[in-house]
Write a structure and sequence with these properties.
Elements lengths: L7 H36 L19 H12 L4 H16 L8 H4 L2 H11 L8 H26 L15 H17 L4 H20 L5 H28 L8 E8 L4 E8 L1
Antiparallel strand pairs: 1-2
């Protein structure tokens, strides 16, 4: 018997429910902190001037992705964060949310939205050529970073399918696109970027509910995605002056592709 004559079974069940509520509050608090830091970090940007100078980015704008990546890296060895990872996974399993492949599609939605919005006649920050150079640069940075880190970290996925859990590539992809969408359309309406980040956060949540990633994987993936896009905008003026200085006209399209097993993006460019 527990305190006040309460049966042990009911007492333990109540403790589990209270623990699950605490875990849920912790997760929500962390996500809110990341979002607040993100908003504050974006306010520190100095790249929305009329001359559209991509190189004018203050160091403070890199605080949010640095915190996200740092949190994920610390989680590789921290017993407390590993315990939190396990508790979050158990909480999601207890919700019986089921498995879905929707995250295979939502990871590309923010980036594709940039081209879709432009196709509907709403011009963004850059023309097709410049935004495609930025996006391609960001994807190269993100893909290489995620691939190298996955191999080096050797973290087992929650479902035990392989040891390529850290960081989350889907989440990195989604947050890369969300930051890309924000940067291209923040001067039109900040809500484009907010929508992109909601979709990206949803992608990260789905990766956890699908039992494919730990919370630290998702946090690090989000940081890598944001950072990749920021770096791409930072180096874009250099690439434009050197590699693409003679390419005044660049046409093409970006489309999602599926080969029956894997999803991806197809890029067709005509010089």
């Amino acid at each position: 018997m527990s305190r006040a004559g309460e049966p042990i079974g009911l007492f333990e069940e109540r403790n589990r429910e209270q623990m699950n509520m605490k875990i849920s509050k912790i997760v929500i608090a962390l996500l809110l902190c990341f979002f607040i830091l993100k908003v504050n970090g974006q306010a520190a940007l100095n790249d929305s001037s009329a001359n559209n100078n991509d190189s004018k980015i203050k160091h403070k704008s890199f605080i949010v992705p640095a915190i996200l990546i740092g949190y994920g890296v610390v989680g590789l060895t921290s017993p407390a964060l590993k315990h939190l990872n396990s508790n979050i996974r158990n909480e999601l399993d207890a919700q019986h949310l089921g498995r879905t492949h929707l995250d295979d599609l939502t990871q590309y939605a923010p980036a594709l939205s940039v081209y879709a919005i432009n196709a509907f006649g709403i011009p963004g920050r850059h023309n097709f050529k410049d935004r495609t150079i930025v996006m391609a640069t960001a994807y190269i940075i993100m893909a290489s970073s995620v691939g190298i880190t996955k191999k080096a970290s050797d973290v087992e996925r929650p479902d035990g399918s392989n040891r390529r859990s850290f960081p989350s590539g889907h989440t990195a992809n989604a947050f890369l696109g969300a930051e890309f969408l924000y940067q291209e359309y923040k001067d039109v309406s900040v809500w484009y970027g907010v929508t992109g980040y909601v979709v990206a956060a949803g992608t990260g949540f789905l990766r956890m509910s699908n039992n494919k990633h730990w919370f630290t994987d998702v946090a690090a993936g989000a940081g890598i995605g944001i950072l990749s896009t920021k770096i791409a905008y930072l180096v874009h003026p250099f690439f434009k002056r050197t590699l693409f200085k003679d390419k005044e006209h660049l046409n093409g399209m970006v489309v999602p592709v599926y080969n029956g097993e894997q999803y991806g993006l197809g890029l067709t460019i005509t010089f």
